[in-house]
User: What shape does this take?
Amino acid sequence: MLRARNLVKYFPVEGTDDVVRAVDGVTFDIFAGETLGLVGESGCGKSTVGRCLLRLIEPTSGSVELEGKNVLALSRRELRVMRSEMQIIFQDPYASLNPRMKIGDIVAEPLIIHNEGTKSEQRDHVAGLLRRVGLDPDYMNRYAHEFSGGQRQRIGVARALALRPKLIVADEPVSALDVSVQAQVVNLLQELQEEFKLTYLFISHGLAVVEHISTRVAVMYLGRIVEIADAVDLYATPLHPYTQALLSAIPIPDPKRKRERISLQGDVPTPINPPSGCRFRTRCPIAIEGCAHVDPDLREVAPGHAVACIRVPGWEEAARAE
Assistant: This one.
């Protein structure tokens, strides 16, 4: 469905020659019908990746293909047509809805922009979408401030579905919601995926949620993907020390069971001047001297399981094989 290769996004630092390396050489594929979870600490570049894929932010370099079409080479007019095939659910359900517009107009706006149907057909379509995401169609004449956070996010989901897209980038769609509401929205997304044959890029720092919804999971650290694998495989046998530390922080809903917590030392380095070699080495519990000199590529060390770490068994063998 989607292929990203060496995706880079640098933000200039005002008044200096420095740049923030928000995304620095990210490569991955998303297959039709699957959910690729993208996880990592806040500030690692997850949301920037999602926005670059849709060209809400223009990438510095790299390539993005949606079903073989080069997204980054499209003109403004061609991109508008392509946007009907890829949509986004924003993180903040309070900021992503225009407070001056009624809900019916918000959900109908994509249909109006793309000249889909008559006004009557658009209204019927909006009513059906609201009903499908669990809202009363009579809500069309209300404003965003009249809804709870969970209801607003359902409105955002309805808007993303309006043009029947193939790919949806869900940018931390449940992080601002209560736990019980999170479960409702995640279950809704799974139902819609099966019903409409959707493909998701699910961005989140909620590791338990990602495990529940994802087919495969990619782990980001400081602008790079450090591990990617099938969700069951990654959660059962994480290979990268950063992934291991992240998963050790997931709470276990059983007071009698305990998980050994891996505490990382120090702070996340600045993306303006990342460490030489492996970017994780300054906090890594198993780092050696060679980690300062080798910037590890993402290499497949087991079927469907790729990792960027010279300390992982099989990484050097995979490097020699290439």
The CA atoms of residues 129 and 158 lie 6 Å apart. The mean pLDDT is 87. Residues 2-239 form a domain with the Rossmann fold fold (CATH 3.40.50.300).
